[in-house]
Specification:
Oligomer: single chain
Order of helices and strands: HHHHH
Radius of gyration: 18 Å
Strand content: under 5%
Number of strands: 0
Structural class: mainly alpha
Shape: elongated
Largest sheet: none
Low-confidence stretches: none
Mean pLDDT: 91
Helix content: over 70%
Length: 179
Amino acid sequence: MTESLIPVAPALDEPLEILSACHGRVRANLQTLDRLIRWLPDHGADKDAQQAAVNVMRYFNLGAMNHHQDEEEDLFPVLLERCPANVRVRIRRLVAWIKDDHRALEATWAQLREQLAMIASGESDQLDADVVANFSAQYLNHLDREDNELFPLAANILTDADIRQMSDRMRERRTGSNK
């Protein structure tokens, strides 16, 4: 089973670019899930399938969770504080929708993670195509809203100081250090 190339992340001093690049990694991992569904019937939970399951779990257990934290703890509060009055209601609704969608994605991921853990350990070669399709559709819709609504708004509203503060927080979250 051939893995696709996962996009390289920008430097931690470019927080909006990091958030956007994360979407590329989500898409790559969704593609891996799609390939895994097609792989398992013919090959079972062989070493390639096990490694693919491990890689997808690693990303969604850590990378995706960091991404949600970056948005909810670092981006949203500043965005809501700085947003002009003429877009305040729109941004509040968008942020509320994204937070709710994060919880829905996390719930669907919990179902999928159990199946992938069994594949990763070689105990099962079963992956529910409907759960994968639902997770992928949910995530792609989520990414679309963030790419086309959230990130452009943030790029126009955040100050250089906001960007530096987000960068510091994201670096701390990922490395345990502030510089």
